Amino acid sequence: MSSLLLAAEREAVAGASRHLAEEGLVIGTAGNISARLGDLVAVTPTGADLATVTAEMVTVIDMDGNVVDGDLAPTSEVPLHTGIYLGTNALAITHAHAMASTALSCTHDELPPLHYSCLSLGGAPRTAAYATFGSQELADNVLKALEGGRNAAMMQNHGSVAYGATMDQAVERLELLEWLAELYWRSASLGTPRVLTDKDFEAIITAAIERGYGSVKKVKKG
Predict the structure, then answer these.
(1) 29 class by beta-carbon count within 10 Å (0-12 exposed, 13-18 middle, 19+ buried)
(2) Which of 148, 163, 172, 218 has the fewest CB within 10 Å, making it most exposed?
(3) Active-site residues: which are they?
């Protein structure tokens, strides 16, 4: 394992692929994962069942999409991955055809903010305009949807994508996007969802800062 180029990144990509498959966010070959180290990217191979991906199956490419190491052709979504890496500070990217977020991408330009946890995605996730899979146009549309500090987006009539500074973060953000999409879906089926306002978010941000929300803290004694 250690002799593999980008061994740690390949293992992270393979592990995330299997995890997302186990969680039901990707079915069969419907998704792709990558991790960046310097000017190289470890990415899932095209046509692979993500539930069975191993580190040895993961391909290494450069930022131009050229294969540097590996026996399998990389995912057709190479432009999406390299585009996000070049346009953001991402070090890991997750893309899936998860049901709820894909359904919302077919009907909404933005996922209405029903829950304050969307702040972890940089705000209410937007939907990137439709373009053919694997195209530079799709990559450009996704980057536009990520503008303004967003780290996750839906892709019209296609799926969802998220990035992070670590693979765990990229996976967590993709899962959160799917949870938010399902929350909206279920809420809308019951009635008209109540959406949080800008004023609500101002109060939420202030409270989060004051309380150190999301951080593990020790009990103050004495």
Answers:
(1) middle
(2) 218
(3) 77
Per-residue pLDDT of 168-181, as tens digits, reads: 999 999 999 999 99
- Three-state DSSP class for 8? helix
The residue assigned the tokens 């304050």 is: 116
Residue 78 to residue 11: CA distance in whole angstroms:
19
The token pair at 70 is 């590996």
Percentage of the chain lying above the pLDDT 70 cut: 96
Residue 149 DSSP label = T
Is the pTM for the entire model greater than 0.85? yes
Q: How many other C-beta atoms lie within 10 A of the C-beta of residue 22?
A: 11
**Which whole-number Å values give the CA distances from 62 to 24, 35, 39, 68, 133, in the listed order?**
30, 12, 6, 7, 20
Domains of the chain: 7-211 (3.40.225.10)
The letter for the amino acid at 167 is: M
